[in-house]
Structures are given as structure tokens and as C-alpha cells.
Amino acid sequence: MVAEGKRWRFAMVCSSNMNRSMEAHSQLGRAGLDVESYGTGTHVKLPGPSLHEPNVYDFGTPLWGHLRRPPPQGPRPVNSNHSKSFEISVSLFAMSLCGCRTGYKRNGLLPMLKRNTSVKLAPQRWQDNAGDGVFDMIMTFEERVFDLVVEDMSNREPRLMKCVLIINMDVKDNHEEAGVGAKLAVELCQKLEAIDGDWEDIIDDLITAFEKQHKRRLAYSISFY
Fold it and tell me: What is its EC number (predicted)?
């Protein structure tokens, strides 16, 4: 339950806190909603030379600034085996910054990173967010991420007995779908914040109506802080 007159506080969560959750964070913020965003993975992954050779970084790494400062001064990926991939990614970034229609500019990663810098300094990890306070609703964009958030909340010792609504809406991890998913997230969050009374009494009807309107399947769970 959210106290009368109190705004909802939202958390957007995907795997690396780079695309889906960050786009939702950006759009919810522009809509005037109180929002943060996170990832649940062990590391942040960015595309490398191939699908099986991603560049891997610690959460908390301000990637835009790091990738604009190439080695030897710039940091290496977490796994030293990816150093060659990192060199290649820096070269692609250099071409993109010079205006070439290749590399990360072509696949949309460069604009994504530039967008992310307008949202916050660096990706954050959900499991390390206890100091960020409590949320009224947590939204995930992938079933596996939803399961990890539900598991993490169940492992936390409830102290406040404040309930939190956790909702999953599957969104493909690409730039176009992230934009669509973010718009739907804004609409859903606005509907929740507009509820007059206890959301627990109408959440089933609200979700059913949302699913019917947008032909998107939602899953939800309730946990406690």
C-alpha cells in the first residue's frame, strides 16, 4: 500500500542496466516519475567482435568516459582475456566519434551510451542497492531477471513490513523494443500512481485490462521490505 498523497517510487531492472531498464528510466524521468534503474547480472556486458566475445565490465564503471579514453591509460575489461576485444571496441568508438557510419555508431550502441550519460553516471547492480531505500514497484523486462529480483527480495529480512509490487513484462533486448517497452512502462506506472486507495484491491483487474489493451503478458509478485 502507498500512503495517500505519497508518490510511488519505481525501479526499472534488466540484466546489465544498459538498454531496457535505462531507456525506461529515461522515459519515466521525463514523465516526472520517481525512478531508479538497475541490472541483475554479475557484470555489465557490451557487444564485442562477435556474439560470443562481449566486452565485460564491473557495475559502477562509467563506460562512456572509459571507452573514450583508450589504453594504455584507459581501464581494461574485468576479464583480461577480453583485452583484445576492448582494443577493437575502442577503435570502433574512435571511428564512430569521427562520424564514420561503421562500428558502434551503426549498431546504435554509441547513441545508447550517450543517452545513458544523461540518466546517470554508470550502471548499477540491483543486488547491491540496499542503500538506495525502498521502492513501491519494481519492473523487470525479462523472466529470468524477474526471478532474480523475487529471489533477492525473499532473501532479505523484512524489517518494515512494507509491501512492494514486482511486475515483469518481457521486452526484447534491442533498441527499438526497449523504446516500445519503456513507453508501456510509463503508462503502467502512471496508472499505478493514479490509484485512489489500496492497489492490492484492484491490481488483478488493472493488469488484466493492461494485458488486453496492449496484448502483452505480465507477471507479478508481491514481496516485503
Answer: 3.1.3.16
